[in-house]
Amino acid sequence: MEAYRDQYATLFNAGKKVVVIGISTDADSTQANWARESGFPNLFASDPDQAVAKLYGSADTKFDTRNVFVVGPDGKIVARMMKFNVLYPGAYTELGTDVSNALKSLGPSN
């Protein structure tokens, strides 16, 4: 998960115009404390009952999964990565591409 934090400026456009939200089954208080103590600038959300995961077809009864959503400046979800593997470097490459594509859709003034 430190890759989220360490690549925030480049991977997530420093949070400008595009928002990336990681959603997991972890309790909201646990996530908030962990993110604050570890210096995470990005957003995390709690889905303890997997309501969001079920809605998007990524619920898993055996493992806690993390779903990642890229939200464009208009507030709409422009990309989603179900069962995001935080240990797989290719997942961050794909996420970077999704953020880049969202920014390109804004035009040259992004």
Structure notes:
The chain is α+β, with helices and mostly antiparallel strands and 110 residues long. The chain has one domain: Glutaredoxin. The protein is 37% helix and 18% strand. It is built from five helices and four strands; from the N terminus they run ααβαβαββα. A four-stranded mixed sheet has the order 2-1-3-4. β3 and β4 form a beta hairpin. The longest helix has 16 residues. The radius of gyration is 14 Å and the shape is globular. The chain starts with a helix and ends in a 6-residue tail after the last helix.
What topology emerges from the helices and strands here?
Elements: H1 2-6, H2 8-11, E1 19-24, H3 28-38, E2 43-46, H4 51-55, E3 67-71, E4 77-81, H5 89-104
Parallel strand pairs: 1-2
Antiparallel strand pairs: 1-3, 3-4
The overall average pLDDT, rounded, is 79
> Please, how many domains?
1
String of helices and strands? HHEHEHEEH
Number of helices: 5
